[in-house]
TrEMBL record:
<feature type="domain" description="Glucosamine/galactosamine-6-phosphate isomerase">
    <location>
        <begin position="10"/>
        <end position="225"/>
    </location>
</feature>
<comment type="similarity">
    <text>Belongs to the glucosamine/galactosamine-6-phosphate isomerase family. 6-phosphogluconolactonase subfamily.</text>
</comment>
<dbReference type="InterPro" id="IPR005900">
    <property type="entry name" value="6-phosphogluconolactonase_DevB"/>
</dbReference>
<dbReference type="InterPro" id="IPR037171">
    <property type="entry name" value="NagB/RpiA_transferase-like"/>
</dbReference>
<comment type="pathway">
    <text>Carbohydrate degradation; pentose phosphate pathway; D-ribulose 5-phosphate from D-glucose 6-phosphate (oxidative stage): step 2/3.</text>
</comment>
<comment type="function">
    <text>Hydrolysis of 6-phosphogluconolactone to 6-phosphogluconate.</text>
</comment>
<dbReference type="Pfam" id="PF01182">
    <property type="entry name" value="Glucosamine_iso"/>
</dbReference>
<protein>
    <recommendedName>
        <fullName>6-phosphogluconolactonase</fullName>
        <ecNumber>3.1.1.31</ecNumber>
    </recommendedName>
</protein>
<dbReference type="InterPro" id="IPR006148">
    <property type="entry name" value="Glc/Gal-6P_isomerase"/>
</dbReference>
<dbReference type="InterPro" id="IPR039104">
    <property type="entry name" value="6PGL"/>
</dbReference>
<keyword id="KW-0378">Hydrolase</keyword>
């Protein structure tokens, strides 16, 4: 494991730097393999970076073979305000990227879990970059502490790329079942970024860096993965 920490004076600087990193990963992938695959977290911290990235790509003429997949998704209809895929489609509208959903259009949890497995079976190559966030309870993607499916989601030997997660308790602001990429699938990537903001999140991160117990703090599964280099992007 290795951590590379990047501190920025504000969220705008974080967004600009993360957008540059993602664009560089995509351009390298297109140059070497003719296609690029990214997994992107939702949440307030990384969204400005995606907007900056979309502005760059709108200025690039011609088709680009770029596929974006959410790291996790709430089991809601795709037009719901809480849908991550809705946000990605709005941000990257007008670009040539393809955005894959982890859920069915109506968000049904059981059908969505099957849909995600089938979709991801067509994208077995390593991601060119993964962007993760982290909650105040140290969850990342939708790998929540206390969720009944957490052990399966953290299992390094799992053959699952995604699974249903039922947070316990359900977050008040988003009381929905989720579909999440597993830790094993998130770690199958050429570049791994963790974006967070604020002193409280930095304290949670420090605790996870000091303690590898991923059942207590799921983000530790990424931070302490033996072969992973995690680029940590933080701003006040």
């Amino acid at each position: 494991m290795a951590w590379v920490e990047h501190a920025y004076p504000d969220g705008d600087a974080l967004a600009a730097a993360l957008a540059r990193e993602l664009d560089a990963a995509v351009q390298a992938a297109l140059a070497t393999r003719g296609r690029a695959l990214l997994a992107l977290a939702g949440g307030r911290t990384p969204l400005p970076a995606y907007r900056a990235l979309a502005r760059r790509w709108r200025d690039t003429p011609g088709p680009a073979h770029i596929v974006l997949i959410p790291t996790d998704e709430r089991c809601v209809p795709h037009d719901h305000p809480s849908s991550n895929v809705r946000e990605l489609r709005e941000i990257f509208g007008g670009t040539a990227v393809r955005i894959e959903a982890l859920t069915t259009h109506d968000g049904d949890p059981a059908r969505s879990e099957r849909y995600a497995a089938a979709m991801l079976a067509g994208h077995k190559e390593p991601f060119d970059a993964v962007v993760l966030g982290m909650g105040g309870d140290a969850h990342t993607a939708s790998l929540f502490p206390n969720a009944g499916q957490l052990a399966a989601g953290l299992d390094p030997s799992t053959t699952l790329d995604a699974l249903r997660i039922d947070p316990d308790p359900l977050p008040v602001e988003a009381p929905f079942a989720r579909i999440s990429l597993t830790a094993a699938r998130l770690l199958r990537t050429r570049a791994l970024h963790l974006a967070l903001a604020g002193d409280a999140k930095r304290d949670v991160l420090a605790a996870a860096m000091a303690d590898p117990d991923a059942f207590e703090r799921p983000v530790a599964a990424v931070l302490h993965a033996p072969e992973a280099t995690v680029h940590i992007h933080w701003s006040p």
